[in-house]
Amino acid sequence: MSASELLRMVCPLARKHVEMWGGGLLLVGALVLAVLNLGVWGNLAALAVGIGGAFLVWHASRYKAPVLEVDAVEFRYRRGRYVVRIPFREVGSYYIVDGRAPSLGICGPSGQPRIFPSVEGRRARRPYLPLTGSTSRAKVEEFMSVAGIPERQQALTVD
Questions:
Q1: Does the pTM of the predicted model rise above 0.85?
Q2: Residue 11, CB half-sphere, CA atoms under 13 Å: how many?
């Protein structure tokens, strides 16, 4: 990887896409109801459906997808205003925590997991960075291998 090269992976947010499409369909439905001009109740229904669609589109636009970035200087994880920056020389390996939404754990050169502040402020610390439920394990593994970060070996090996 050259000094000016930046690798970037945006984790997909299925919920954001569903809410955007649903809100858009509700807005189209409101437009159809308004064009049909079904009287006072039809106009009120069109207004209610339009407000619901606009709310869904607004709500979906507020979701912030996690972004992984790696360059020659540092590893970055961003999710909205939450940013983790780790100098690249302090990244030894990674591991993926499976679950409903997979998470990414980063280990130092000694193999010890790094501890991060909580993203949502519920707990004080956690040893992983949350991704999204739509993030595929294979995509994360491919991204990290292109970045040159090896996977942490879970099994003990004797040489």
A1: no
A2: 28
